Structure formats: structure tokens, C-alpha cells
Amino acid sequence: MARAFRSFLPLFDRILVERALPEVQTRGGIMIPEKAQGKVQEALVIAVGPGAKNEKGELSPISVNVGDKVLLPEYGGTKLVLEEKEYFLFRDGDLLGKFESQ
């Protein structure tokens, strides 16, 4: 983990992610204006909490690990700024999917 995250760890089933940067140029070389760029739904997992407790009091593990690429919902998450970088907190159940590493 980066130096900034030694002082911040998500609680319960929360996951800290950094959104991927939007595409600013097409394959043909045309620059895309900022207003036309869609909201990026891919993100990199930066930190994960220990998991949430179920009805029996047992810890349910998180479904992703640090370094995984995930698919985010279009809306949601809590915006967080650490060391002038923008991150988002999501619950484990809010993530839509995980990309397999190749």
C-alpha cells in the first residue's frame, strides 16, 4: 500500500478504489472534449476492509483484493481526497464485477 493509506483503512466491507482516467483521444487521433467523455466505470482497488459480520457474528470475506480491476456502478460511492488524489469508497456488494488479470 502507498504511504497515504497507512493512515486510512476502510472499515467493514468497504473498498477504496481509484477510478481509471477517461479516454481523451480516439483510436483515429481525434481529441474527445471533456463534456463528451463518459463517466469511467473501471477502477483499481487500493485498499479493502476486513469484511462484514453476518448474523452468526462470523466475518464474511471481501470478494476482491488490492490491485484488482473492478467495474463500478454509474452512480454511488463516497468521494474521498487523500494527498490531492481523488478516491471513492464502495461497499463490496455495490461492485458490479471484477476483471480477470491476464
What's the helical proportion of residues? under 10%
Q: Could you tell me the radius of gyration in angstroms?
A: 16 Å
| Alpha-beta classification | mainly beta
CA-to-CA gap between the ends?
A: 22 Å
What's the total helix number? Answer: 0
Q: What average pLDDT do the residues reach?
A: 80
Which stretches of 5+ consecutive residues score pLDDT under 50?
none
Task: Strand order, main sheet: write it out.
Answer: 6-7-1-2-5-8
Number of strands: 8
Question: What do these coordinates show?
Answer:
- Helix content is 0%, strand content 34%.
- It is mostly beta strands.
- The strands form two sheets. It has a six-stranded antiparallel β-sheet, with no helix packed on it.
- A hairpin with a 5-residue loop joins strand 3 and strand 4.
- The mean pLDDT is 80.
Features:
102 residues; mainly beta; 6-stranded antiparallel beta sheet; two-stranded antiparallel sheet; 0% helix; elongated
Q: Could you outline the blueprint of secondary structure elements for this entry?
A:
Blueprint: E1 14-19, E2 42-48, E3 52-53, E4 59-60, E5 69-71, E6 78-82, E7 85-91, E8 97-99
Antiparallel strand pairs: 1-2, 1-7, 2-5, 3-4, 5-8, 6-7
The gist of it:
The protein has strands at 14-19, 42-48, 52-53, 59-60, 69-71, 78-82, 85-91, 97-99.
